[in-house]
Amino acid sequence: MKKSFIVFLFLSIFFIFAYLFYKQGLLPVDKNSKETKIFVIKRGESLNSIINNLYRQNLIRNRLVFYFLVKKLGIERKIQAGDFRLSASMDSETIAKNLTKGTLDVWITIIEGLRKEEIAQIINKNFSIPESEFLKYAKEGYLFPDTYLIPKDATAESIVKILTNNFYRRFNKELQQKAEKKRLTEEEVIIIASLVEREAKYDEDKQKVASIILKRLKNDWPLQIDAAVQYALGYQPQERSWWKKYLTQKDLEIESPYNTYKNKGLTPGPICNPGLNSIKAVIDASENTPYWYYLSDKTGRMHYSKTLEQHNENIRKYLQ
Q: pTM for the whole thing?
């Protein structure tokens, strides 16, 4: 009997302590604080990481208590990526529930190789900005592929500015100077990088493809790049794509300054928005490559050849 009483007493003390610990952990860090902070949750960020960041930024008292609170409320899967205006004067439950509400900004991801019309579709979907409005300000090649956190109330013009400013942050002075040493203008780098982006699926192929393009330009050969013809053809309603999958002989005869089978030299402008790896590939490329030809097989792997005979053999081997 005495032993049972001791166990009961011990458990009572434990639960009272746990209850007080839990209640204390829910309180605001500083109820008198009048400051607010912008707290950012990245896409795919784990609950543990979010809790650690809240604690690090002095927004919650206790990580373990906050974890149990989220589980108790059943909101773990409702927490959104984005940024939130929080304060140390908020209690833990208020903070937890705020993380499930609409964020101040919107996350968007622009992958490499999209043309400006495809990016306009992404902007329209996330911000309800008409595609035509975005395209008024968008400049092909300069809408840098990346993941962005953009204000909900952003305008088409301000979004284009965010993407373009990021382009110049990434295509920095060092890369610009390296391009100048190779006698390449900014526009030439971006045009060639856009061709490389669409032609080479894997990073290890980008510099080789860029080298072949430079060699052909130097020797006044037509570039004969399918991606440029795809760009000229534009939107394909049947495929619901801006990039026609299979080109016909008739497609290769289209009258367009972007048809690199009929016109020598570079296209009038970029055909998509290239990523940093493609830009660097152009700057690091050498026109002294031994290869004149390349082709991509059905898996996207590149095959290079020094002569037309070798190229035709690769066509027979990998494409027929």
A: 0.78
